[in-house]
Design goal:
Bound molecules: guanosine-5'-monophosphate
Number of domains: 1
Radius of gyration: 16 Å
Strand content: 15-25%
CATH class: Alpha Beta
Mean pLDDT: 95
Helix content: 40-55%
Order of helices and strands: EHEEEHEEHEHEHHEH
CATH superfamily: P-loop containing nucleotide triphosphate hydrolases
Largest sheet: 5 strands, parallel
Distance between the termini: 16 Å
Number of strands: 9
Length: about 180
Amino acid sequence: MSKLLMLVGPSGVGKGSIVSELRKVRSDVWLSVSATTREPRTGEVDGEHYFFVSQAEFDLLIARNDLLEWAEYAGHRYGTPKQEVISKLESGLLVVLEIELAGARQVKKQMPEVLDVMVLPPSISELEARLTNRGTEDPQEVRTRLALASMELEAQGEFSHLIVNDTVSHAMEQLIPLLPPQKS
Ligand code: 5GP
């Protein structure tokens, strides 16, 4: 059973909350920290939430083939550092990627055994409410992310597993049975 879990789904759907909850019940979870060219939001810590890099630094990551996948999303680039993922998988950890659709497609091509899960919102209006209420994006950015969300949700048929994040505890009930058992 694959030890690589990919949580894919629209911005605001609550992938981060699911990973936080998963960490409480499994000590073998390692969440990949992505590189991004987006500016940090208030409270975001470099090296913890993301590696915040310049455009030139991101270009270099691509040129050196250091990224497992990368994509442009809402005007910024995001990518998964490859070496860390490989070494954590080798050490037996459950590696979690929290990524958008274009990157997910690249991972599926390279690692077809990946456990691919799309996280769905209970409805588009609920997603809009979550994006608006978290207050991290301005109204224009919320509109961009909602338009991207509709496109992402149309691709749900590409995923082996769909879970609905109406509440985090319900999402966990759907996710836990899909995971490989934790070795003690
Ligand atoms: P945000 O700006 O809200 O942090 O992230 C925007 C979108 O990019 C989210 O759907 C998030 O899951 C996705 N994302 C974060 N890191 C990566 C990454 O390394 N690769 C890809 N393809 N998407 C990512």
